[in-house]
Amino acid sequence: MVENSRFGDILAYVILTLGVLVLAFPVYLAFVASTWDPATIVNGQLPLRPGPYFLQNYYRVLFEGTGSSTRQPVSVMMLNSLVMALMIAIGKIAISILSAYAIVYYRFPFRQSAFWIIFVTLMLPVEVRIYPTYKVVADLGLLDTYAGLSLPLIASATGTLLFRQFFMTIPDELLEASKIDGAGPFKFFVDTVLPLSITTIAALFVIQFIYGWNQYLWPLLITTKDNMQTIVIGIKKMIVTQDALTEWQLAMATAVLALLPPVAVVVLMQRLFVRGLVETEK
After folding, report:
1. Rounded Cα distance, 156 and 159, in Å
2. To 5 degrees, how large is the angle CA 236–CA 159–CA 276?
């Protein structure tokens, strides 16, 4: 058992504070840069305090766009990223929880084989199967659509494994009690399994929402229209090869705006997210 000591507590707080500063300072610097004019940034004389162009820069990126690199306002890109992230997160949870429920509670031939086939797909990330996936999506006419952005990323072996391990910890007595009460498989799933899985669902939602929001390679491949671009692609397009041509204040403002939805999801679901990670056997 670790004994508490005043020196140990102070050292822990010092290390924690340094870690937070190292992580938070680049974000603060990006925010400060987003509130100044381009001349101040390009000249290398960026102060450590916010500038007077906060409203002007953020209004321009949100409702007008940069004009030279991205012809759509950032609000459109954020909407595309939000729809894509929500579809991926909700789709992964729906497919994973149903497939895990079938594997754990139904008895059918090759049940374990089905699980291991799903598990093996963990070894095939999107980058490995990206060409055949692109071909299928293109043949189905799903380029430049929300379905094309989301469907290829919805299948999740990780989610299925997560729910399977949790379902295996649910006592069999609950299943027997439900059978005695006359509940069928659907009622047992809705009334018993689903409420017990709330924390696991929340943990998976947070992870998959951030995963979907940060996607770069797949949206870059299948979107050709400006109004279907996600915010990660927008940031990349704003940063051109020549530093002098990059509107850094707008790129930094877009980067700060891109941080807000994932941070909001983590903050709002913090308790459920932590409980989902520590209370179940995984």
Report:
1. 5
2. 95
Residue whose C-alpha is closest to residue 232's, from 241, 221, 219, 245:
219
Contacts with 227 (C-beta within 8 Å, 6 or more apart), sequence order: 72, 76, 80
pLDDT digits (tens, 9 = 90+) for 223-234: 888 888 899 988
Enter the DSSP assignment of 226: G
Non-local (6+) Cβ contacts of 4 within 8 A are: none
Using CA atoms, how far apart are residues 248 and 98, in angstroms rounded to an integer? Answer: 46
Q: Residue 249 is which amino acid? A: Q
CA-derived radius of gyration, the chain:
24
Segment 75-90, tens digit of pLDDT: 999 999 999 999 999 9
What pTM was computed for the model?
Answer: 0.85
CB atoms within 10 A of CB 195: 8
Q: Please, are residues 160 and 100 in contact by the beta-carbon 8 Å criterion?
A: yes
**Contact 81/234 with Cβ under 8 angstroms?**
no
3-state secondary structure of 142: coil
What residue type is 243 in one-letter code? Answer: D
- CA dihedral sign of residues 21, 27, 33, 34: negative
Closest CA to 32 of 45, 17, 22: 45
Query: What residues contact residue 205 under an 8 Å CB cut-off, 6+ apart?
Result: 89, 90, 93, 265, 269
